[in-house]
Amino acid sequence: MVLVRVRVEQTPLPGIGVRHDLVTSSGRTVGVVSHRNGRRDLVLYDVDDPDSCLASIPLTDDEAEALADVLGASLMLGQLAGLRQQAAGLLTEQIALPAGSPFVGRQLGDTRARTRTSASIVAVLRDREVIPSPGPSFRFEANDVVVAVGTRHGLDGVTAILAGDTDG
């Protein structure tokens, strides 16, 4: 079974706000520009030139929340944006836990992820529920989405651990 990863990259936009981009498995890039004044724009980038915006759709808070609900997304990444701005070099990643993971039904502490990678599991998304700051006795279920914070190397390590691709 292949472990699915979704990377959301954050780019500061001086004087404007911050941009979060997601590259889909088909290679398309979609993003959200969060302006300092609270406005949000949903943006779609040109597949041939990822720096070129094909469309920009302004969203009210209610529209952004409705879109997040429709997509089944969590506001967790928005809440973690402030943490990322304060901690240079840290990234946030959502890591899906497929049914075939060796950690389904096991406790978070069994992964020893923080000790082994220096990355932290800060939340778990289960169905439409956010479980913030799960403790070591938290039990994973198939299709949980783990939200981890760390360096690129650390996040890759957590992904490998959850996939069962490492010793230990």
From TrEMBL:
Residues 80-164 form the RCK C-terminal domain. One of its GO terms (molecular function) is monoatomic cation transmembrane transporter activity. Pfam families: KhtT_N, TrkA_C. This is Potassium transporter TrkA. PANTHER family: K(+)_H(+) ANTIPORTER SUBUNIT KHTT (PTHR30445). The lineage of its organism: Bacteria, Bacillati, Actinomycetota, Actinomycetes, Micromonosporales. It comes from Actinoplanes siamensis. One of its GO terms (biological process) is potassium ion transport. It comes from the Bacteria. Gene3D superfamilies: Regulator of K+ conductance, C-terminal domain. InterPro entries: AAE_transporter, KhtT, KhtT-like_N, RCK_C, RCK_C_sf. Signal peptide: none annotated.
